[in-house]
Amino acid sequence: MEPEVFIQAKVSKAPRSLPLSRRLAKEIAPHEVFLLVCSLVFSIFAIFASFRIPEWPFVLLDMAVAAGVVFGINLWTTLNSSQEIGIWLRRARLLYLFPVIPIYFEAMGLIAFPLHGHDFDSILIATDRLIFGVNPTQWLWQHFPTWPWLTEYLMICYSLFYFLPLVLVIDLYLQCRKNNKEWSWSFRDISREEPSSSVEQVVFIIVYGFLLSYIGYLLIPSIGPRFTLHNFFDLSKELPGLWLTEPLRNILNRGENILPGMSINEVLRGVNRDAFPSGHTDITALTIILAFQFRSRFRWPILIIGTSLIFSTIYLRYHYVIDIIGGLVFAAITLYTWQWLRDRMLILRARFS
Q: Which of 27-41, 53-67, 71-85, 315-329 has the lowest mean pLDDT?
């Protein structure tokens, strides 16, 4: 087992003789380059389509905040010379992504519907009917039991969407620590070779998966069957839970700009268009696959909760079945193309370092 001093010495850091801008460029990881590229693309798009996007200044603000956080934490890491602080910075570089990703989701919500001027739910409904001959969420309501304990369990699983990839990343980080390999995913001066650790690979794939699904929302904005095939305000009566279902449902509604007391017209104007593809399915499928690929200690709980989560998207009426299929397709695209995209991000980074 390698001593801690030797491990810390292995972490490569850009020489302090280099200009700060080049040192900062060397510090930024491929997934962070991708985040910055997406911030730039979303901003340019909002400016050029400002005549159709009334809230385009808020898109620019969201993207400025996201880019500022990425630059800020990398600048902090670049200027840091303390090994003890460096350990906490590396941990922070895992955790800060999870509150940053929703900023892009919010920006997408400001763009998608105004850009098209209409939703695509009718096409998604027709596709489900073509495949199954029925509307699956309505069929479930008529033929599948709606026991309160089942609704409670599925609502809890659905609410763990962001936490499953977080659990996976933390577990892989702890495995690196246990095997004295923390240095190997420091994100510092990463070359064009294969990712140096499971942590770096998983972080890039998850970030890529999130943002790719957001692009799908921009192309095919849709609100889902709880609004189009069911009465949104009857959900609590038709799918009652036990103790946590209603509080969790309210929290999720707030995350989609649905506030208590809103009329249905206000809800339909403000809700995020995030039905196709199912991001819950996309990211959960990626998390399950990666958990087994890297033999996470939590791979079986992730599988059980993850499969329940995917089913819950239909049972709780958040998605059409075609959204689930789309999420699986997007997950496959992510797994097939992530290495190519990572190389492109490294080439782009090299131009500034």
A: 71-85
- How many CB atoms are located within 10 Å of the residue 329 CB? 14
Q: How far is it, in rounded angstroms, from Cα 153 to Cα 151?
A: 6
Question: Backbone dihedral region of 260: left (phi > 0), alpha (psi from -120 to 50 degrees) or beta?
Answer: beta
Phi, psi of 137 (to 5 degrees): -70, -35
Residues 6+ apart with CB under 8 A from 274: 105, 108, 109, 217, 224, 256
Residue located via tokens 């690979």: 201
For the chain, the straight-line distance linking the first and the last C-alpha, in angstroms and rounded, comes to 34
What angle separates helix 163-178 from helix 279-293, to the nearest 10 degrees? 20
For 30, 123, 294, 313, 327, the CA distances from 322, given in Å and listed in that order, are: 32, 10, 29, 11, 8
pLDDT confidence of residue 91: 73
**What's residue 181's pLDDT?**
55
Is 6 a residue whose pLDDT tops 90? no
Has residue 278 got a pLDDT over 70? Answer: yes
Instruction: Give the tokens for residue 87.
Output: 């350990």
